[in-house]
Amino acid sequence: MAFSGDMGNCIAVLERYAYMPSVTLGRLTIDDFTCYTLERPWKQNTPFDSCIPEGFYPVIQVDSPKFGDTYEVTVPDRTHILFHAANWVHQLHGCIATGSYVDPKNYTEHGAMISNSRVTHKRLLSTVQEKSFRLHITHYHPTFD
Q1: Domain regions of the chain by residue span
Q2: How confident is the model at residue 4 (pLDDT cuts 50, 70, 90)?
Q3: What does residue 3 show for φ and ψ, rounded to 5 degrees?
Q4: How far is the first Cα of the chain from the last one, in angstroms, to the nearest whole number?
Q5: pLDDT tens digits along 59-84
Q6: What was the pLDDT predicted at 82?
Q7: What is the 8-class DSSP label of residue 119?
Q8: How many angstroms from the chain centroid is the CA of residue 95?
Q9: What is the three-state SS of the chain?
């Protein structure tokens, strides 16, 4: 879906901290809201099978037929990249799931499990009051003093 409107002042940062063969894990921060993210592994931006590349993206609020009120990330050469509830990577097809924590005890053949996804997704929707924002996807940069 193309976007041609004002992106507002809200900027979200998704900082990925683990690129693994079966899953990509990160932390999403928007103002005072922070949660964990679950995505498919990096597979050269292959639609429905890969997480999206690092970079800056416009995000717009949409009403998804399958997931209801949510946000869609506008990514070149990709469609339907949504934020939505999911606990396992096999429930995602290029989208981004949000949760309150990654459960290390539940790492199985399905990869890591993200917990409290539905509740966290509702918190995301209630916290972000804007119809659109910018998403900056980056990777963790440790600092040493």
Answers
A1: 11-139
A2: very low
A3: -125, 135
A4: 44
A5: 999 999 999 999 999 999 999 999 99
A6: 98
A7: H
A8: 6
A9: CCCCCCCCCCEEEEEEEEECCCCEEEEEEECCEEEEEEECCCCCCCCCCCCCCCEEEEEEEEEECCCEEEEEECCCCCCCEEEECCCCHHHCCCCEEEECEEEEEEEECCEEEEECHHHHHHHHHHHCCCCEEEEEEEECCCCCC
| Single-letter residue type at 81 | I
Length of the chain: 145
What pairing do the DSSP bridges indicate for beta strands 11-19 and 132-139?
parallel
Q: What are the residues facing 26 on neighbouring strands?
A: 16, 37
Hey, how many other C-beta atoms are within 10 angstroms of the C-beta on 20?
Answer: 13
Q: Backbone phi, then psi, for 122, in 5-degree steps?
A: -65, -40
Q: pTM (2 decimals)?
A: 0.89
CA-derived radius of gyration, the chain: 14
Q: Which residues in 38-76 are b (16+ Cβ under 10 Å) and which e? A: bbbbbeeeeeeebbbeeeebbbbebeeeebeebbbbbbe
Q: Which residue type does 45 have?
A: N
